[in-house]
Amino acid sequence: MSKAPEEEHPVKAFGWAARDSSGHLSPFNFSRRETGEEDVRFKVLYCGICHTDLHIIKNEWGFSHYPVVPGHEIVGEVTEIGSKVKKVKVGDKVGVGCLVGACHSCENCKNDLESYCPSLIYSYASTYHDGTRTYGGYSDSMVANERYVVRFPDSLPLDAGAPLLCAGITVYSPLKYFGLAEPGKHVGIVGLGGLGHVAVKFAKAFGAKVTVISTSPSKKNEALQHLGADSFLVSKDQDQMEAARGTLDGIIDTVSAVHSILPFLGLLKSHGKLVLVGIPDKPLELPVFPIIMGRKTVAGSSIGGMKETQEMIDFAGQHNITAEIEVIPMDYVNKAMERLAKNDVRYRFVIDIGNSLAASKP
Asked: Where is the Enoyl reductase (ER) domain (predicted)?
């Protein structure tokens, strides 16, 4: 007979959880494991709200197990470390992103690509090595093996830096891997949301020329004036799209709704790359002719491994790259989810766990 969540482990914990596919979040008592010799425990101060959180609490991908404590953009202050921990010390500012475990023996793990391990363990709604469920960052504390803990540079604010642990690495990794993180490259960013706005900042910091591609003409000033993009295309405007045909070295497509990729293939130069990082809930059509005739690549990319995630955070600290955020108290989270479903956020909600979670206890 399985134990109740608050009795599974010796350390009491408190957070907010969804109990069913309604996705409604409410106060939840559970427990965390003791600090193992390679573990880092930290007090959670902020946690970003990712679109994945919304998908999982509503079981929109079909594999959720309840109760779910979401949150994988988790930052805070170290309160305890295991005897073998070398990376951080008590009092350090740290973060945990999407991963808390992997097999550490497969080819991907050996190449610092834990994110592609067949046995990877997510920060929440996953099963840990000991058979217990993982719970995320909408909670007062977090414990993780030091391999999955990221050191935060002093120059990076915790609240606006938190979303980089998912949104940041999701765009940084493909820019680097597909050769688009170089001065002089011309990169397109499709969609100006939580991922897209951070992608613009990273691509510009790499020295690339950046074109934002959006269905919303109203986002033009935001893209050009505030985020520093070089040009803006309305994807529904045939004349604009035709004028830009064959001008881009690569495109990062951040859109998670079903859409046609044909117009974007036309924007690519020969040998150009269209990289999908959004996850639509239905398959997209693959137009083969323009891919073959331009020797173009349609690819996908997930988050990065832990070595690259630390590299990304350090780069963000050096270049003052943060997410545009709206900080909210814990008890606003259900309203925030409603707004997120309508894309009514600019561009990332971040929960002020440190100052509001305790007050939400019943």
From this structure: 23-351
Whole-angstrom distance, CA of residue 238 vs CA of residue 294? 20
> What is the per-residue pLDDT for 166?
97
Count CA atoms within 13 Å of residue 93 on its CB side.
Answer: 15
**What's the CATH class of domain 5-166+323-360?**
alpha beta
> Which letter, b or e, does each residue of 226-255 get, where b requires 16 or more Cβ atoms within 10 Å of its Cβ?
ebebbbbbbbeeeeebeebeebbbbbbbbb
Angstrom distance (rounded) from CA 322 to CA 317:
8
Residue 161 three-state SS: helix
CB-based contact 17:350 (threshold 8 Å): no
CB atoms within 10 A of CB 109: 21
pLDDT in tens, 207-224: 999 999 999 999 999 999
Q: What is the fold of 167-300?
A: Rossmann fold (3.40.50)
Give domain limits for the chain: 5-166+323-360, 167-300
Beta bridge partners of 74: 47, 96
Residue segments in the chain with a per-residue pLDDT below the cut of 50: none
- Give the pLDDT of residue 281: 80
User: Cα 84 from chain centroid?
Assistant: 29
Global confidence as pTM:
0.96
What does the DSSP 8-state code read for residue 3? P
Whether 175 and 187 have beta carbons less than 8 Å apart is answered as yes
Q: What is d(CA 231, CA 211) in angstroms, rounded to the nearest whole number?
A: 5
Kindly state the tokens that stand for 359: 């007050």
Q: What is the dihedral of CA 191, 68, 34, 164, to 10 degrees?
A: 10
The 3-state DSSP class for residue 100 equals: strand
Hey, what amino acid is at 277? V
φ/ψ bin of 210: left (φ > 0), alpha (ψ from -120 to 50), beta (otherwise): beta
Instruction: Give the pLDDT confidence of 348-360 residue by residue, as tens digits.
Output: 999 999 999 999 9
